[in-house]
Amino acid sequence: MRVSESVAAAYFLYLFVLCWIRPVSTRRRIGISVVSLLSLGAIALVARYASSPIRDWAPAAYILVGYFQSGRFYEVPAVRVEAWLAAWDRRLLGDPTTRFAAWPRPLLVYLDVVYMACFVMLPAGYAALAWTGHSAEADRYWTLVAGADMAAFLSLAIFQTRPPWALERPPALADRSVHRVALLFVRHGTIGANTFPSGHTAVSLAIAFALLPVLPAAGVVALVLAATIAVGCIVGRYHYVIDVVTGIVLAVVVWAIVAAAGR
């Protein structure tokens, strides 16, 4: 079994065990258990019988399923944790809803568009490797990406917080139309809960770390996009500042572990 497959398997096993420990409804417990076991079986079957191209792309599906399964733990928000996160935002930004009111509209549109495109970066990063003849880097790439993203989901199964946009008044921004689309996206296309650390920040930076040694130009582009996403998370009020900072730290830690393991 590849390292990236082991990471995904360990995550689904974690979800399975935790759903029987954490106070979740019986319906959700059964749902999480069934999907986790099916995911573990799928990972084992793909690792044993699938062709290399299928194995190379399969982690993208594991990450997607893992993300939505982690959201099934969300029932009651941890109000004290939310207050702590929000207090740091006020300490660092003042009033977060007006802090970026003077930023130019084109910049705000760019931030929202790149933020929404974060999910596209995961397959696009590996597609760049495969397109340039570096498909042998698949396991290293997905180990970094799955490691960072799934680690960001871990806390969702233990305590849940609501994102800033769900608690604050709408931010005063020069751009309204694109930001409205972005809010519709996060409300209806995501689990609607806050990931602490920020999964967007952690995974986009992990993609850059995975690409830089092999495709430096693509890695630099990914690094710029990761920085954009980190800023966009805060400006658009999709994440708290501490989410973003810990997301950066998480990506660096995962990269350091993978590098130390000689991968």
- Largest sheet descriptor: none
Low-confidence stretches: none
Fraction of residues in H or I helices: over 70%
> Helical region count?
12
Backbone CA Rg: 18 Å
Q: Indicate the mean pLDDT.
A: 93
CATH topology of the domain at 78-260: Vanadium-containing Chloroperoxidase, domain 1
Structural class: mainly alpha
Number of beta strands: 0
> In one word, what is the shape?
globular
Mind telling me which CATH architecture of the domain at 78-260 this is?
Up-down Bundle
CATH class of the domain at 78-260: Mainly Alpha
How would you describe this structure to a colleague?
- The model has no long low-confidence stretch (mean pLDDT 93).
- With 263 residues, this protein is mainly α.
- It is globular and about 55 Å long.
- Helix 6 packs antiparallel against helix 7 and helix 7 packs antiparallel against helix 10.
- The chain has a domain of 183 residues: Vanadium-containing Chloroperoxidase, domain 1.
- The longest helix is centred in the first third of the chain and has 24 residues.
- The protein is built from 12 helices and no strands.
Please describe the topology of this protein:
Layout: H1 3-19, H2 26-49, H3 52-71, H4 79-93, H5 105-116, H6 118-131, H7 138-153, H8 164-167, H9 177-188, H10 199-211, H11 216-235, H12 241-260
